[in-house]
Write the structure tokens for this entry.
Amino acid sequence: MIQHLGTADYKQMLWKNGAGYTVELARSDGDSLDTFDWRISMADVKTSGDFSKFNGMQRILTVLEGAGIVLNIDDDSEHLKTLQSAQFSGDSTTSCRLIDGPIRDFNLIYNPEKWRSRYQWLFESASTEIFSSADLIFIFNQSVEPLEIEVDRQVFRLVHRESLKIEQQKALKKLVLKSQHLKQVCLIELTKI
């Protein structure tokens, strides 16, 4: 099943700790923020502060916009600028300090006991061919210009911040991300363990 998701398909919800809002792009089944197996979202971080805990989960966070953050994970600090990522445990005590004003971030949270993930950003302007047999393939276009993607001879056109969600039964898929002047695309592949 292939779904082209636009901003009208995304769902805004309160953070688990109540300190802000998340825009949920997609998630596995689950009625609450404690029962999903994976979730892909964006959040506007307007103030420095603590992150919600997601026990037993793995997290990957990328700064989409803004000057960046200092991410404090347990006893370590990491400085993230635009389109830089960090991976950390949802069990960790995590907070952030804004460098120079608000940021928007992009997040994958998943259960590593049920899913294996591959998370990558593609910046190459040339046409890119990808072969995948993942159970879930998720493509997010952060580029300002539209992205054309061909999936098994079907062509999809994603504008800024639109996504393509492909769920399947272990069939090998060929994806072609057409050439684009300034490509800023996140490709997430999740495979059931």
